[in-house]
Amino acid sequence: MLKHLFKLIWNKKKQNSLLIVEILLSFMVMFAVFAFAVNSYQNYVKPIGIKYEHVWVINYNNTLKTQNSDSLTMFYEGLLRNIKAMPQVVDAGFSSTNVPFSSAHMSGGITVNGKRITYVNQFNVDDNYLNTLGATMLEGRWYNKQDGISKEKVTVINNTLKEKAFGKGSAVGKYFNDYDNKFKIKVIGVVNDIKFDGDYQTVGLSQYNRFDTSAYHWLQRILVKVQPNADAAFESRLYKFMANQMKNSNIEIEHLPNKLVAYNKFTLVPLIILSIVAAFLIINVALGIFGVLWYNINKRRGEIGLRRAIGASGSSVSSQLVSEALILATFSLIIGTFFAVQFPLLNVFDLSAGVYLTAIGFALIFIYFIVLVCSLYPGKQAAAIYPAVALHEE
Amino acid sequence: MISLQNIEKVYRTTNIETLALNNISLDIAKGEFLSVMGPSGCGKSTLLNIMGLLDAPSRGQIKISDQTTDNLNDKQLAKFRNQKLGFIFQSYHLINDLQVLDNVELPLLYRDTTAKERRQLAAEALEKVGLSNRMKHFPTQLSGGQRQRVAIARAIVGRPEIILADEPTGNLDSAMGNEIMEILLQLNQNDGTTIVMVTHDEHMAQKTHRLVRLFDGSQVL
Ligand SMILES: Nc1ncnc2c1ncn2[C@@H]1O[C@H](COP(=O)(O)OP(=O)(O)OP(=O)(O)O)[C@@H](O)[C@H]1O
Ligand SMILES: [Mg+2]
């Protein structure tokens, strides 16, 4: 019977091609939606990697008249000392503008054994950064004062970069080169992955570099870890303190939890848009399948009557029509799966193969489900056709 | 072979009630070739549908091969039709998207058969109707007479004991009609198939064993 239905569909491939293309298209869209969703979910269940609940970000811009590096250093070191001395402050440190949950990104590359690794996020940080954010070292150590005077170039990387560069083993004490392959950099520590881009985004490759004092010319962020009881009154005191210290500077204080919420919303927008597009397409396809089957039944009343006359029961007629729809879907889904598996094979978006395969699985189930649901009712209608009546029309 | 007892068929539509068959009793012996005649609308097709278990009578009883049929469910009826009956229609009812051979195989699909058996039985049936050289054609590539021969092959492929033919020559010119009639007579004589045929053609009817005439749902001969 299956072979018979294949033949029937194959011989009608022209009439069926539109539906095949439509199902194929919706499979691809659903594949994209599910890949996006599965990836977002996988990211979501991973720990965020920092204790951000009581971390504030002070935005400022350097408006100091002096261009003298020593006096700049003295000023900013004094500023930080004063902030740290406040009783509500647990710890504080300078950072480049790409603080957690901000849209600022700085990207660079490194060379490992002659092979370039690109899209490495670059963070310029100080000795207090780790403790202020509450991240953890997986191995090795974070920066300290000694690193300021040592001759050797050292760096701290995140776990993702470690695995990409050195695999599963230990990385501390190992070396890689800068992007242009000119000088050696020694890894002194590996820090846990931090989801800088919010709950739903993939953790990228990250490298944390201890800035030297010349960076005070352009640094614009101070991260402040406060006590849980730090309130709005303290925030305004902190604001006033900053405004007093740095006349003419634009001071703004943000809270990481708020930034996270805002950033999450921002990253979910594409998923929402994609889902809306997908929903419209699916409705369209569902109506298409429904309509085509409905139309088929009316066009094929004679055939249905004949099949009943020569030995088909009502239920076998309806299961035939449902099977035809599923076979048609299978044609589309085979083609669709062929395209979909190219994504992990060619590693198009740097998502793991598992994400793509799960998405393919979900999309297959989803499309089959839609087709099944849309064909059940027309199938039932077909079973209700009176053969005696259908055979004498025409 | 077929026994009808006091068959009555009433069609009810919203405002009209049609008595399509009025108290018909009929016994058809095994191996008999019966023709049914009567003016249009007198209930010939209705009678054939009821014999073919495609439609249930409003009253009365049908026995086929000494088996009562009024207590069979949809599945059992389908199986019964598949094994005991072959149908031929005025408008052939071939599936245009299937080749001739696949059309002929159709009844066997609803039975336990292997693809090879189906192929062989269908080829034999097509040979009987003289269409061995058209197996790979599609119905639209055939003449009316050839199409009806395909339909006959389909009706006989499952070796049914009974063939029910509703105006099998109605759409054909007399030469082609005679050809079809010849095939039916052969089936009746050589294989002992019981045949009930509705026709408008006196000549055709004369070639059969017995003639039944209907008028307004009643048997008049
Ligand atoms: N499904 C139906 N619903 C209502 N009335 C019906 C139905 N089928 C047949 N009839 C009526 O029953 C009567 C007998 O119809 P039937 O088709 O048996 O006639 P027939 O003798 O085969 O005619 P023809 O020679 O034109 O084929 C007609 O009056 C017809 O209108
Ligand atoms: Mg009729």
TrEMBL record, chain A:
Q: Its topology with respect to the membrane?
A: Multi-pass membrane protein
What stretches pass through the bilayer? Answer: 20-38, 268-297, 325-343, 355-377
Q: Where is the ABC3 transporter permease C-terminal domain?
A: 276-387
Claim: Signal is one of the keywords in the record: no
Q: Which Pfam families match?
A: FtsX (PF02687), MacB_PCD (PF12704)
Question: What InterPro entries does the record point to?
Answer: ABC3_permease_C, MacB_PCD, Macrolide_Exporter_MacB
Positions of the MacB-like periplasmic core domain: 23-233
Mind listing the GO molecular function terms for this protein?
A: transmembrane transporter activity
Q: Looking at the keywords, is Ribosomal protein present?
A: no
Top-level taxon in the UniProt lineage: Bacteria
According to the UniProt record, one GO cellular component term is: plasma membrane
| Compartments reported by the entry | Cell membrane
Keyword terms, alphabetized: Cell membrane, Membrane, Transmembrane, Transmembrane helix
Q: Which PANTHER family match?
A: ABC TRANSPORTER PERMEASE YTRF, MEMBRANE COMPONENT OF TRANSPORTER-RELATED
Family assignment? Belongs to the ABC-4 integral membrane protein family.
Q: What is this protein called?
A: FtsX-like permease family protein
From TrEMBL, chain B:
* PROSITE patterns linked to this entry: ABC_TRANSPORTER_1, ABC_TRANSPORTER_2
GO CC, alphabetical = membrane protein complex
SMART domains to which the protein is assigned, alphabetical: AAA
Q: Which UniProt key words apply to this protein? A: ATP-binding, Nucleotide-binding, Translocase, Transport
Q: Mind telling me which CDD domains this protein's record contains?
A: ABC_MJ0796_LolCDE_FtsE (cd03255)
Residue ranges constituting the ABC transporter domain according to the UniProt record = 2-220
GO MF terms held by the record: ATP binding; ATP hydrolysis activity; transmembrane transporter activity
Return the SUPFAM superfamilies for the record. P-loop containing nucleoside triphosphate hydrolases (SSF52540)
Q: Which family does it belong to?
A: Belongs to the ABC transporter superfamily. Macrolide exporter (TC 3.A.1.122) family.
What name is this protein filed under? ATP-binding cassette domain-containing protein
Q: What is the lineage of its organism?
A: Bacteria, Pseudomonadati, Bacteroidota, Sphingobacteriia, Sphingobacteriales
